[in-house]
Fold:
Amino acid sequence: MRKIKLLALILISLAMVLWFNLRFSTPSIPTIAASPPKTIRYFDRTLPQSIAHIVLIPVNSKFLVTPALSQKVATVEEFAQKHQAVAVLNAGFFDPANQKTTSYVVRQGKLIADPKENERLVNNPNLKSYLGQIFNRTEFRRYLCGQTIRYSIALHSQSPPAGCQLVDAIGAGPRLLPELTLEKEGFVDNANKRDALGSNQPNARTAVGITRDGSVILVMVAQKPLAPANGISLPALADLMKTLGAERAMNLDGGSSSSLYYNGKTFYGKVDLEGNFIKRPVKSVLLVQEK
Structure:
């Protein structure tokens, strides 16, 4: 009997200790792994007739995508060195003869390049009927909406969204996504058999896109040396941007201007008859810089 009572007291004591620990102990806090920092990612993709060089800038990363303009034409490496940029992509159209822009450029809220001031453009009789469309082509834009940075692709005449201020913009075109706007922007006139960009022909091309979450994609599609009729057409470029996750995208200056700098290395897009890449200086670019 005494053993039974002793066993009962031991069990009661253990139960009380267990209850006390459950009642007053501090609950354990689950460990949450720190999220990896959002940073730039470069990768390439081999296509049937070309190689796509791609730079992805995640949304809410420590990097900004902004335009830059050179008084005289310069290579993407020179832009990178001057602006201490991580990545540089050629951007707006220009006239190699007078080195003046044929695309608008806005930087820090100020218009720094105006195609209407290019006399070779405005006085060209072959382009007179298209000037209204040329002066209202697609732009890559950076807005400041309160304290939030937002990127967009819009026509030059389009007003910023309510509550947003236009900080930067650089024009080129045509829009690739959600639809290809070659005729609307004066690049193609089927009635007069005009196609300023050879849109259905393979060539070196450059583009910028924006994903659903607001990340920015820079793309330069390079020709393969000594491969016949190689490169990418504009409809195929639009398809490529879609496969990369872009919901909105636009074409930039291509052909011999196609060039991309990333982290100390430069990729060029156009090859000559001997299969050598053409290193052509450009007028304007998109910079990727740390904030």
The chain has one domain: 36-290. DSSP finds five helices and 20 strands in the chain. The mean pLDDT is 90. Residues 36-290 form one domain.
